[in-house]
């Protein structure tokens, strides 16, 4: 992140004093130049006052060196309101995004991530703001500097044909993907920008309200819960959804199309919502039942379910993959087996409730979700995790998986098999080393301590050592950070 120079740091303090003392923490009333100069002991109109008035531009990236332009610096989003109207026939989206954020510096200018579209208008705290486009950065210059720590609201009006990221060499096609009857919306790692302007990195989670308008007969699905019934007027239906728990941008969805639905509750009373494209009619009950059953099981193993509902969606877009969209995992063009459902639902705890701060720690998502598949197999009386581990471990020492250290996911090969399988093997090696009681206590504690928050690998290693009372750096070094087959642990 940008380092403040000594002089600017002094100015920032002065502004803080001025802002709190004179006007409270409100962006719209934050024009505190004269007050600041007095608080700072310097005369109005001198260089200091001018400088604070100008503030600093927020960074174009949130500070993940592997994805330098993902997310943005200088503010923190608390809430998105996404108003989206989509016409599947014309593949046309028009949207109004309202971002409620808090400045983390004096902000003279800031970015949002947005890919494609024509931006019609941007306002900050209700006043028109200047804006420009540069690659995937929408650069916004408010009419006045936003003081550090103050809340502000940005509204962006935009429209155009959404363009998902297509056939990226290591990430495939993702983002807002138009389908014959709507859209399949799966945005990992940075495809949220293909459908709304925001802070597109998991290190800035926020709450979401969705208002989605589609032609009558089309169903619009999003994260969380429906608010009221859909409203149809003039051949269009508006669906309102709300995700009231913090959510990473890549987990947000507005998948639309023709869907058959089943709603109810799991055995312990968690809301369960399943939706399938009519082509997968025959899979609706199985998806509903398995999702319910697996959510119940993970609640016992990992701790209480973190969100307001569980379930899943099968669309007919032939992605061939699944994504753990918060509360509604999506399966693209296949009928998921219970192993895949177990994987995506485990992500609700590992990846969704607990989010990685930087992409290099991706094994904290994928290694855990893959290990969950092994636990599910063991639970069902199929192959034990131990047996699956041995099988995978038996792979020849020259195999690719041993050349890729999973504890440091590579930006040009993020979703490498090693991050998944060797990540899962790491957890099994740990389980062997510390024993079942400590291992399962660790999984639950890890979740409880970071619920709805952010995590990094060193934090996991530290907790594993704390709970087991063992020194584990050798184990983690061998399994996560060494590009060769581990032999002892
Ligand atoms: N996280 C997904 C899983 O393992 C895989 C995935 C990576 C993905 N990038 C994606 C899915 C983009 C959909 C879109 O469950
Ligand atoms: Zn996964």
From TrEMBL:
Catalytic activity: Release of an N-terminal amino acid, Xaa-|-Yaa- from a peptide, amide or arylamide. Xaa is preferably Ala, but may be most amino acids including Pro (slow action). When a terminal hydrophobic residue is followed by a prolyl residue, the two may be released as an intact Xaa-Pro dipeptide
Biological process terms in GO annotation: proteolysis
Cofactor(s) required for function per UniProt: Zn(2+)
Segments forming domain Peptidase M1 membrane alanine aminopeptidase: 339-479
Disordered: annotated segments: 51-70
One Pfam match: Peptidase_M1
Domain spans labelled Aminopeptidase N-like N-terminal: 79-251
Keywords from the UniProt entry: Aminopeptidase, Hydrolase, Metal-binding, Metalloprotease, Protease, Zinc
Enzyme class: hydrolase
EC number: 3.4.11.2
Entry GO MF terms: alanyl aminopeptidase activity; metallopeptidase activity; zinc ion binding
Annotated family: Belongs to the peptidase M1 family.
Annotated protein name in UniProt: Aminopeptidase N
Organism name: Streptosporangium saharense
């Amino acid at each position: 992140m940008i380092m403040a120079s000594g002089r600017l740091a002094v100015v920032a303090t002065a502004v803080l004093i001025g802002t709190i003392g004179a006007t409270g923490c409100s962006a719209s009333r934050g024009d505190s130049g004269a007050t600041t100069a007095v608080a700072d002991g310097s005369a109005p109109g001198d260089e200091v006052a001018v400088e604070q008035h100008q503030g600093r531009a927020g960074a174009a990236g949130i500070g993940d060196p592997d994805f330098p332009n993902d997310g943005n610096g200088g503010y923190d989003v608390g809430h998105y309101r996404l108003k989206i109207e989509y016409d599947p026939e014309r593949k046309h989206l028009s949207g109004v995004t309202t971002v409620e954020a808090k400045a983390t510096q004096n902000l003279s200018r800031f970015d949002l991530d947005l890919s494609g579209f024509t931006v019609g208008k941007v306002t900050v705290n209700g006043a028109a703001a200047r804006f420009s486009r540069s690659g995937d950065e929408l650069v916004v210059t408010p009419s006045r500097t936003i003081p550090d720590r103050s809340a502000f609201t940005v509204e962006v009006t935009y429209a155009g044909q959404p363009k998902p990221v297509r056939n990226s060499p290591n990430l495939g096609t993702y983002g807002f993907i138009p389908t014959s009857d709507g859209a399949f919306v799966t945005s990992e790692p940075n495809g949220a920008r293909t459908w709304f302007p925001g802070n597109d990195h998991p290190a800035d989670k926020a709450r979401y309200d969705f208002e989605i308008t589609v032609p009558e007969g089309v169903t619009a699905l999003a994260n969380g819960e429906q608010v009221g019934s859909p409203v149809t007027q003039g051949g269009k239906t508006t669906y309102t959804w709300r995700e009231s728990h913090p959510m990473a941008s890549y987990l947000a969805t507005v998948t639309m199309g023709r869907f058959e639905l089943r709603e109810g509750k799991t055995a312990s009373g968690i809301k369960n919502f399943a939706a399938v494209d009519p082509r997968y009619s025959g899979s609706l009950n199985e998806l509903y039942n398995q999702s319910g059953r697996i959510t119940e099981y993970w609640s016992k193993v990992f701790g209480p379910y973190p969100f307001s509902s569980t379930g899943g969606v099968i669309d007919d877009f032939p992605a061939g993959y699944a994504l753990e969209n918060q509360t509604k995992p999506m399966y693209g063009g296949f009928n998921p087996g219970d192993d895949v459902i177990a994987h995506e639902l485990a992500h609700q705890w590992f990846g969704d409730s607990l989010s990685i701060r930087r992409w290099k720690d991706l094994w904290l998502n994928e290694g855990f979700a893959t290990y969950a598949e092994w636990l599910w197999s063991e639970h069902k009386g199929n192959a034990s995790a131990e047996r699956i581990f041995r099988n995978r471990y038996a792979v020849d020492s020259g195999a690719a998986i041993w050349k890729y250290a999973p504890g440091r996911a590579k930006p040009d090969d993020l979703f490498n098999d090693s991050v998944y399988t060797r990540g899962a093997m790491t957890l099994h090696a740990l389980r062997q080393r510390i024993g079942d009681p400590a291992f399962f206590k660790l999984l639950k504690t890890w979740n409880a301590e970071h619920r709805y928050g952010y995590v990094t690998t060193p934090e996991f290693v530290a907790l594993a050592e704390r709970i087991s009372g063992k020194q584990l750096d050798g184990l983690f070094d061998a399994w996560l950070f060494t590009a060769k087959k581990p032999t002892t642990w």
